[in-house]
Amino acid sequence: MIRKELVAASAEPLILSLLARGESYGYAIIQEVKARSDGKLQWTDGMLYPVLHRMEHRGLIKARWGESETGRKRKYYSLKKDGKAAMAKHHEQWSLVHSVLAGLRKEQYV
Amino acid sequence: MFDLEKAIAEWRRQMLAAGIKTPVPLEELESHLREELERQMQSGLGIEQAFETATRKIGQARALKSEFEKNDVSIGARFVELTGIAWGVIAGVFSLWTLLLLFTFQEANWFGRMLGLVAIALTVSSWRYGYRVLPVIRHQHVRTVIGFACCAASIVWMGTFVKLILPSLVVLPMKVDTSPTRLMVSFIWAWTVAATLASTAHGLKKVVSRQDQPAIS
Asked: Is the residue at B217 inside a domain?
């Protein structure tokens, strides 16, 4: 399992990156993250919603109520312009951390 | 016999009792619960077991409430924020209007015009980037009090400027340079001070929301 501090820090970039592919809703976001991480990134399902609402308040994403294929009410989220900018910044920062780590790891095997 | 709708109604009641506000968060959580229930039942679980698994995965009401609470904005905080924004808009409009007068006033010199432009640039920067130099104050009440004090100081400052400083600039021509250019530049700078103070209320909230990390796991 991944440490909870890392899970918390990665929530926003993951949500933004998923929404960059198109609008989505809470349940689908959780399933997608779970599938892509082979179940290693575990979120407490309900905790996603305060995060989504906070991102909505900050103007990173917007929401609309829609319906599922079976007619159930669903709240769909999509990326806003500020969200795209925030995502680019996250990618830049995470890439930097990754490259530093990868470089240091490589040096250990030289 | 397990009654699913009754169980969901009870779950809603527990969420409400814990303080999860309706309609949006609870509706959204229920929609999630029903999706998870379907999925669990499709994977072969019985209805009762599926319900228990789905509610456990959603999380405890108290923990959820405490996370949702971080998004809540008190009436005082909203009032201060709106006052700050309104005052910032007024400052911007008056500054730009005076700057326009300054640029259309033929006797105005370029130094005065540049000073006016610098003041406007400072106003815009304080609203756009000012939050970066502000401290992170996580306690909403403290932020509201500081924001309120800044807004009040800003309004008092403009009152003092218009009531006391501006008339003295006009009335005492022998003591102070009262050229129209000087008056207009002083006016723009007075609004810049007011707008910068007002931007603090807005900035204190922004700096916190930029740094807060979610408790998602």
From this structure: no
Say yes or no: B42 contacts chain A, CB-CB below 8 A.
Answer: no
Domains held by chain B: number: 2
Tell whether B140 and B192 lie within a shared domain.
Answer: yes
Looking at the structure, give the CATH architecture of the domain made up of residues A4-108: Orthogonal Bundle (1.10)
CB A43 within 8 A of CB A30: yes
Which H or E run contains B149?
helix B140-160
**Per mean pLDDT, which of A4-8, A72-76, B65-69, B178-182 is the most reliable?**
A72-76
B192 and B103 share a domain?
yes
Q: What is the mean pLDDT of residues A81-93?
A: 95
Confidence band, pLDDT 50/70/90 cuts, at residue B205: confident
Percent of chain B with pLDDT over 70: 91
A18 chain-B contacts, CB cut-off 8 A: none
**Chain A residues whose beta carbon lies within 8 Å of the beta carbon of residue B25:** 49-50, 53
Residues B182 and B150 grouped into a single domain: yes
Report the length, in residues, of chain B.
Answer: 217
Strand partners, A75: A65
Beta strands in chain A (DSSP E): 24-25, 61-67, 73-79
CA distances from B20 to A49, A51, A55, B16, B30 (A): 12, 15, 18, 5, 12
> Is A89 an interface residue toward B (CB < 8 Å)?
no
Section B22-26 average pLDDT: 76
With cut-offs at 50, 70 and 90, classify the pLDDT of residue A93.
very high
Q: Inspect the interface and report whether the beta carbons of B217 and A44 lie closer than 8 Å.
A: yes
Give the whole-angstrom CA distance, residue B200 versus residue B215: 27
Asked whether the whole model's pTM tops 0.80, one would answer no
